[in-house]
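Changelog-adjacent note: as of this version, every example in the card shows the full chain rather than a window. The one below runs 161 residues end to end.
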Amino acid sequence: ERMQNFRSKLSDFQREQYRNHDAAARKRARAASKHQSNASFGSKQSLGKSVKKVKKNLPQDPAKQKLVIQAIAQSIGLLGPSLHKRNTRHLSCKLKDDIVKFYCRDDISYQMPGKRDTIVDRQNGTKSTHQKRILLYNIREVHQLFLSERSGSGTICCHKK
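Full-length structure tokens:
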């Protein structure tokens, strides 16, 4: 009621200034409320609470924390896909066959006797069964034997059967 009395006593010029000032203030208030409505959280406190929950459930190791956060950021789309490609050494088919033959020799491994001691190998839609074999030596000794028989190429540990 007091504001109505104040407005009624204003002159035309003062009333126009008052309306312009009031319109500008309302416009600023609408712009400020729009910015807050775009935020996912209603307040800073709720954002802080969510951040605290996430930090509490992260691993203790800082390196693992970094990996987890990077994976989450990548799955959300904050980071682009990783450009790192792993380099692997490829062996020739002949060397792979030589390694398999070396393992299948009777002085390196023996064949298990049972009917159920077989391995089914599926390649390109075809099945082939192989009898299981047990090494007579450990991998390091077998590797040394392979190197002594065949000088130059010595990657056998990753191709056991």
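Structural remarks: DSSP finds six helices and four strands in the chain.
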